Amino acid sequence: MRKKIHFLTWAVLALFIPLHGATSAKEQTVTLQISGMTCGDCLSTVQSALEHVKGVKEVKMRISRHTHEAVVKYDPEQTKVEDMIKAVKNARGMHAYDAKVKQTGSE
Hints:
Elements: H1 2-16, E1 28-35, H2 40-51, E2 56-63, E3 68-74, H3 81-90, E4 98-106
Antiparallel strand pairs: 1-3, 1-4, 2-3
Helix pairs in contact: 2-3
């Protein structure tokens, strides 16, 4: 009897423990066009500001000669795109940064 209870306990607990790498069915992605970045420190500053927004799951920076973007995966139940834009604008680096939505989508 004890083994059945033990197995049942683990089976119930497994329902409440998210799997590593599992994503919410409601996870969304937004691409933000970032202005004001001029160097690697700027990139780190903006990326860190976005990563500290509650609900942000992943930030990938895409930087080229003509493109300065952040692709952000987030939980829309925990944060809004406006919160991410505000975080970029409030980021403290060598320059003033700004962000605007370039593209939205869901996973």
